Amino acid sequence: MAALVAVLLLPGGLAAMCGEPDAAGRSIAHYHQHKNAGITIRAMLKNVTHAREMHSSRPPLAKVLRAAGAKREFVVTFVREPVSRTLSRYWYWRATGSDKSKKTRKARCATLLEYARASARANNQHQYMLGGAALGACAARRRLGGRARGFSLQKLRGFSWGARGRSKGPAEGDGVFDAEAGNRTKAPADVCPAGAEAYGRRVDELLASPDLFVGVVEHFDLSLLLLGRLFPDLDVDYCRRNSVVGAPRLDAVRASAADAVRVIAAKNRLDAVVHRRAEAALLARARCVFGGAGGVDRALANYTARLRAFQRERCGTSGHSHSLGPPLDEPTAWSPSEECRHYRASEDFLPVSDDDEESVDS
Q1: Contact between 16 and 285 (Cβ < 8 Å)
Q2: Would you say residue 175 has pLDDT above 70?
Q3: Residue among 331, 275, 288 at smallest CA distance from 112
Q4: H-run or E-run covering 215
Q5: What pLDDT, on a 0 to 100 scale, did the predictor assign at position 120?
Q6: Distance CA 96, CA 104 (A)
Q7: Is pLDDT of 4 > 90?
Q8: DSSP state, 276?
Q9: b/e map 49-83, b = 16+ CB within 10 Å
């Protein structure tokens, strides 16, 4: 008990003990990853003077984090389960695109299975969040006499340390992750020399960055509750933006297009790890901050009651700006337009590429 009291009396108290970073006096840098509730976050930050967004032209997150301390910025990004994220992009392009567009016709003129095989992005969250970053825990350690050469606590944890012991992230002496497209379809062990388990630890290192908050779309309200603790002046009441009405539910797609779902999952094994580790870290922090699972439930219930009242009064259907109807709400169908028929008969139909340009509104 005395030890616990001593911890609580330290600067930051419970927040520090629960791993909450210190964002006081810092501006917000929203690292917008497509189809991860970014438009909703953008709307929340619109009236915040100390906030900026990086989207279509964003550099790798590793570069942003290296500059965050000097700029007095705190980086906020969200991740999402990769199958759900891919489907969101697919339905969004179907609802908002044109059969004449070289980009969106890949979704509108193709079944979900065809799109998954040829056009669905692979490990996109890994690419942006870890591309160009130090290998850290993934660095293979040479052994001498049964012990890791160059052993030290700092190397074991994959961190280099600055003034006053503050972590600056994994040291880059052991190399960096490939920032190009070549590693997008690999398994964790293929990009992490130390193995699949070490890849999970490397993601944990990223999540522990003192300059970063990673929210999870599947726990959006809980993520905003924790973000609001870091920025007390941030209004976390929101209207849902950029959603698609009429898109099939994920469980229905899993039942009717299981082959497509398996292809998407196989192409996103790295992103699946990023999502799982981020989800685990978010839930662990929330349980610590709010005093266990019961405390989390109570905090969420209070926030949800207030939020729903706000949304009934202020939001209406403003966020549901896109609608999807037959036949494009069916994953095994495609648009019957003349443009799609010509496209499907052409040599350009479904070229295998992960390099599609992102929409600024995705």
Answers
A1: no
A2: yes
A3: 331
A4: strand 212-216
A5: 92
A6: 8
A7: no
A8: H
A9: ebbebbbeebebbbebbbebeeeebbbbbbbbbbb
Q: Which residue in 296, 301, 306, 328 sits closest to 93, CA to CA?
A: 328
| Count of all residues that appear for the chain in the document | 362
Q: How far apart are CA 341 and CA 329, in angstroms?
A: 18
SS3 57: coil
Distances (CA, A) of 234 to 52, 209, 212, 238: 14, 21, 16, 11
Q: Which two tokens stand for residue 195?
A: 């193995």
Under the banding of pLDDT at 50, 70 and 90, the label for residue 154 is very low
Cβ atoms of 230 and 20 within 8 Å: the answer is yes
Contact 272, 264 (CB under 8 A): no
- The partner residues of 143 in beta bridges, in order of sequence, read 148
Task: Please list the alpha-helical segments (H only) found in 72-195.
Answer: 82-96, 105-108, 112-118, 124-130, 153-157, 188-191
Q: Strand runs (DSSP E) across 13-164, as ranges? A: 27-31, 51-54, 73-79, 143-144, 147-148
Region 238-265 average pLDDT: 95
Q: How far apart are CA 25 and CA 36, in angstroms?
A: 26
Peptide bond into 351 cis (omega under 30): no
Chain Cα centroid distance, residue 267? 16
> What 8-state DSSP symbol labels residue 237?
-
| Beta strand pairing call for 244-245 and 322-323 | parallel
Q: What is the pTM of this model?
A: 0.86
pLDDT, greater one: 8 or 334:
334
Provide the greatest CA pair distance for the chain.
75
CA–CA distance, 310 with 90 (Å, rounded to integer): 30
Which pairing describes strands 147-148 and 73-79: parallel, antiparallel, or unpaired?
unpaired
